[in-house]
Amino acid sequence: MRRQHFGDNYDITKRFLMSCLAPNGPWGIIPMFTDEWSQQWIEEFECLLGGKVLITECIKATRRREQVTTAGNWDGHIFIDPDTGIRSPSSSATSTKLVRLEELIRESREHRNNIILVFDQSYANAKLPDKIQAMLEKLEHLIGNGVLGFGYIGQASFLVLSCDPSVLEQARENLLCAGVPGCRLVCLDDSPG
To answer: How many separate domains does the chain show?
Structure first.
C-alpha cells in the first residue's frame, strides 16, 4: 500500500467489500506499507476502511514473516492489502509488494473461523479470461492446502478466503444480497464459494 494511492477508488471498493462480507466485523488490516505513514494517516486509513491497522511500519524483506504474522493475536477478520497483489503459485518472484500464498494459508489457518480478504492486482493489465485463469490457479493452490475461497473480479480484484465453509458461504451470500452480480464472483466447482 502506497501513501499516494490513499483514498482512491480501490480504497472505496475495499471498504464496500469489507462491510458487505462481514458487516459486524471486526476487521484487522495488514496494509503492507511500502512507504512511511504518519500516525494521522494511519488513523485516516482506519476510518476510511472501517478497521484497525495491525502493522504500522513498512514491510521489510528481512522481517517479513514476523510482520505479516502480527495478525496472529487478532480475533476477527483480516484484510491484507499488498501493494501489487498475490504471487502466483508458478512464480518465483520475491517482492515486498506481493503476498505469498503460503502466508495466506498460514493466516487462514490461524483465523479459521474468520474471513481473510486480499487485494490482488497482480494481473491488472490482463484480459478477463486470463485474470480468471490466474485467479483459479491461486484458488486451486489454496484449496489444495485446506483453505476455501472465491474471487471477486473487477477493476480492483480480491480473493475471499476462510477455512470455515459456512463463513465463506455467508460472505458470498452477503455480497449477492448487496447487489454484487454473481458473474463477478469466481470459484472452483468443488469450492463452496
So the answer is: 1
